[in-house]
Amino acid sequence: MRSNNRRPGRPCLLTPERVDAIVRASAVGAATSLAAEAAGVSRATLARWMGRGRDAAETREDGEPADPRDDAYVDLYRRVEQARAQMATQALARVLQAGAGSLILEERVRTYTDPVTGQDVEERQVHYLRPDWRAATWWLARVFPEHYGPNAKSFDQVLDEFTARELHDEHDRTESTELAGLAERLQLALDTPPAELPAPAPSSFA
User: In whole angstroms, what is the distance from residue 156 CA to residue 18 CA?
Assistant: First the structure.
């Protein structure tokens, strides 16, 4: 008897044309909803496809047998992830170029004949964007948020927190040592027979 829990094969909606449209949209940084709209499917459908592809890809990376019914979903997931990674890398490169002042705004090539040598000469003129510190700040805040993000703490704050933590740990260690000594003395008293216990000091009211 065939199980009813088996997942169906590739649905008719997941066509190569739709996969290409999703990948193209992802390559320019389009959001999931826009990528789905570009392919003519709902966002929920695309999310379901991507989720199945991700799960199947991770399963294969763990060494488990591949299910051929997941091939189309794995291909979609991997191509979209690669397109997004390439887009993000290119965008980051442009941000860093803007911060360093190496982003090209305009490039002109002029060709003329040298009147002395009679040879054709190619002259290239490049105009760069002026360095913008805000681009570097944006990059630092997102790559190192603990140091440069909006909630980053100053060195003095970090030092004060470290000192307070050390003092707290030292207090805990001292209390732990005192409690251990008390427990040891209590255990010794419990294990000592009454005859061996020291006699109580005489009362001054006797």
Answer: 55
Per-residue pLDDT of the chain (206 residues; tens, 9 = 90+): 444 444 554 456 899 999 999 999 999 888 888 999 999 999 999 999 999 999 999 999 999 999 999 999 999 999 999 999 898 888 888 888 888 777 777 788 888 888 888 888 888 887 777 777 788 788 778 778 877 787 876 666 666 777 777 777 776 777 777 777 777 777 776 776 655 555 655 655 54
Q: What is the pLDDT of residue 205?
A: 52
Taking the alpha carbons of 129, 135, 137, 139 in that order, is the dihedral positive or negative? negative
Residue among 136, 127, 125, 74 nearest 100 (CA): 136
Alpha-carbon torsion (68, 70, 76, 82), positive or negative? negative
In the numeric block, the tokens 């005489």 are attached to: 202
